[in-house]
Amino acid sequence: MVVANQKGGVGKTTTTVNLAASLALHGARVLVIDLDPQGNASTALGIDHHAEVPSIYDVLVESKPLSEVVQPVPDVEGLFCAPATIDLAGAEIELVSLVARESRLQRAIQAYEQPLDYVLIDCPPSLGLLTVNALVAGAEVLIPIQCEYYALEGLGQLLRNVDLVRGHLNPDLHVSTILLTMYDGRTRLASQVADEVRNHFGEEVLRTSIPRSVRISEAPSYGQTVLTYDPGSSGALSYLEAAREMALRGVGVRYDAQQAHSRMQNGQQNMAEGIQ
Ligand code: ADP
Ligand code: MG
């Protein structure tokens, strides 16, 4: 599952690590692949990722087997992480001249022999070759959307990229899941945006949305997910619930990209009009 949205700060990393931990706590074996040079997912999972640590960079650029970089996550049984180091910042350019530059992650995952129920890929906030590698490797796309104005802006570009990758490199790829993040029920804007997203995406949007929660934002500074940091908090419970919903949906619904484009364009317009 590719967690993507080229906007920064919408909750990709938070969603990746907390959903992954939730799925592992439900008994699944889960691998998080950190594909952002910032390495925030690695940090949040308590995984060392200083420059010398074998990382996803070595897998993508040096063809190192994935199994040589994967580390078990402390505190959560069944959860594993392929960390990102700062080297990855150069990979976007280094990949350009390599053979099969778009499918290096796909090959690495295919060659990985440990049993896994889920692989979650945390993408950087861009649509470059790293994100393309994730889209080629993935089966489904999960888009976190922050409940604020401009929430849908830029999503058209992401959906077009999904279409392009589906057309040329990965025929099964589809957007299966949309998760509303940082939802603040006290503001009218948040509920208005949530309504728009639900109207225009329909069934792909999980019923569970993730509330804005201080506990969620504190957890990474302790190298933890909110599930271990404060298991009873509203943030932990909402990620557990979102994971349960995702797991129950199984392979999810097929996504009609064409229809979504037009629904989204209307949405953008309605939202602008509504808010003016
Ligand atoms: P991205 O990976 O898309 O850039 P992050 O997951 O890093 O986004 O989130 C951006 C910031 O928002 C981080 O500081 C994170 O701790 C905070 N954040 C994410 N989700 C929540 C939430 N539900 N409540 C409060 N803060 C959140
Ligand atoms: Mg991130």
Summarize the structure.
The protein is α/β, with parallel strands linked by helices and 276 residues long. It has helices at 12-25, 40-44, 56-62, 88-94, 104-110, 129-137, 155-168, 188-201, 214-218, 226-229, 234-249, 257-275; strands at 2-3, 30-34, 71-72, 79-82, 118-122, 140-146, 174-181.
Main attributes of the structure:
single chain; 276 residues; alpha/beta; Rossmann fold; binds adenosine-5'-diphosphate
Describe what you observe in this structure.
By secondary structure, the protein is of the alpha/beta class. The chain has a single domain, classed as Rossmann fold (3-Layer(aba) Sandwich), CATH 3.40.50.300. Helix content is 44%, strand content 12%. It has a 7-stranded mixed beta sheet with strand order 3-4-2-5-1-6-7. Helix 1 (12-25) crosses helix 11 (234-249), helix 5 runs parallel beside helix 6 and helix 8 packs antiparallel against helix 12. The longest helix is centred in the last third of the chain and has 19 residues, at 257-275. The radius of gyration is 18 Å and the shape is globular. Mean pLDDT is 91; it is low at 251-258 and 270-276. It binds adenosine-5'-diphosphate and magnesium ion. Adenosine-5'-diphosphate binds at residues 8-14, 40, 125, 181-182, 210, 212-213, 216-217, 235.
